[in-house]
C-alpha cells in the first residue's frame, strides 16, 4: 500500500484506521472519504478528505485517478440493524457500492480490502467453531449483502486478477468512535452507561454469545492482511477472525470487577435478538492464523480495563472543554 483511498472513512473503523495508516504511510498518502462531513477535525487537519458517495462509480474513478491510488479500503456500509430497517438502501450501498469499487479496481489495477462480517452467516451455520468454509444462508439484508460481497470479491480476483482481500469482522468495541447501528453495539454502549449512569439494560438476552474484538486488534488485522505475501494466501476474502466470545452477563461481570456498584439488567429488543440468534457463537480463525499470522492482543479482561480507563479520560476531557466554553 502506497496511496490509499478509504470509503466510509468517518465511521467506527475508518476514523481510527485512517489515522493509523497516515502514521504508517504518510499523511498525504491516505485519502479519507465519506458521504458527509462529521465532527472529526483530526481527519481534516492531518490529510486529504473528499466527499464521496460509493454508489457513484464515476466519482470513485475520478478520485482514484486524481490521487494516483493503488489501494482502496472500502468501508462504506449500512450496519446490521440499520440495514434491516432500510433494506433497499442497504442493498444499494452495501452491494452496488462494492461492485463500483471492484470495477474501478479492475480498470485501474488497484488492490481492494473490504470487510465482511459474522452477519454473513445464518441460523443453519455451525454455531461453535464456525469453519472458514461452511454453509452461510444469512437471513438479514445486511448478511445477504455481505455473503454476496464475499463471492463478488472472490470472482473479481479469479476472473480479473484484482488483488482483493478481506476479513469477517466480529462485533467491534472502541472508546473513540460511537457505533453506527450494529447488533453488537451493546458491547460499546454498556461502557458508556456504566460510567455515566452506573447501570445498563442489555437489548441482547442472557446467554447470547457473539464474537467480539477490540478495535486496535481489528485495525492491525487490516494492515497485516494487506501487507501479507499473496503467495501465502490460500483464501483471499472473508477470513474468519476473532479475539473473544462472550454473552452480555459475562461482559457485565468484567465491568463489575472494575466498577462494583454497576447495575445490570435486560430489556431485550426482539429485532436485535433475532439477528444475534442467527449468528455464530464462536468462529474458527485457524486459516487467518496459518495464512497471514493473525493473532489478537486483547481478551475480555484486558479490553474491559482499557475501555474503562480511556473512556474515563475521554469524559474528563469533554467536561474540561465544556467548562472552558462556558467561561469564554
Q: What would you say this structure looks like, in words?
A:
The longest helix has 28 residues, at 300-327. A six-stranded parallel sheet has the order 3-2-1-4-5-8, with helices on both faces. The chain has a three-stranded parallel sheet with strand order 6-9-13. By secondary structure, it is α/β, with parallel strands linked by helices. Helix 3 packs parallel to helix 5 (87-108), helix 7 (186-196) packs parallel to helix 9 (248-258) and helix 9 crosses helix 12. It contains twelve helices and 16 strands. The termini are far apart. The model has no long low-confidence stretch (mean pLDDT 94). The protein has helices at 14-25, 41-46, 57-66, 80-85, 87-108, 141-160, 186-196, 215-227, 248-258, 270-277, 286-292, 300-327, and strands at 4-7, 30-34, 49-51, 71-74, 111-113, 116-117, 128-130, 163-165, 167-169, 171-173, 199-202, 210-214, 239-240, 244-246, 263-266, 282-283. It folds into two domains: 4-171 and 213-240, NAD(P)-binding Rossmann-like Domain (Rossmann fold); 172-211 and 243-316, UDP-galactose 4-epimerase, domain 1, CATH 3.90.25.10.
